[in-house]
Amino acid sequence: MTQGAPQATNCARCGASFGCGINQASCWCQTLPTLDPARLDAAAGCYCPTCLATLVAEQRQQDDAACGSSAKS
Ligand SMILES: [Zn+2]
Predict the structure, then answer these.
(1) Whole-structure pTM over 0.70, yes or no?
(2) Which residues crowd ion ligand 1, with CB under 5 Å?
(3) How confident is the model at residue 15 (pLDDT cuts 50, 70, 90)?
(4) Which among 2, 6, 34, 62 is least surrounded, fewest beta carbons within 10 Å?
(5) Cα(2)–Cα(16) distance, rounded to whole angstroms?
């Protein structure tokens, strides 16, 4: 077993290869806000930094829209 190096994996969304820190003490993905599990396909695997940031931003926009829809001018 090798441990310590990020695990090379491919993004479930765009297919880009990136390093996942799942076998390390921490992963870069833990620095981002948690995504709603309903938005994730757990069986598909991890997302690359670009896609994860995009999904977080989309989730935030939808949350804002849900909260502020009646206050729109
Ligand atoms: Zn991606």
Answers:
(1) no
(2) 11, 13-14, 16, 48, 51
(3) very high
(4) 2
(5) 23
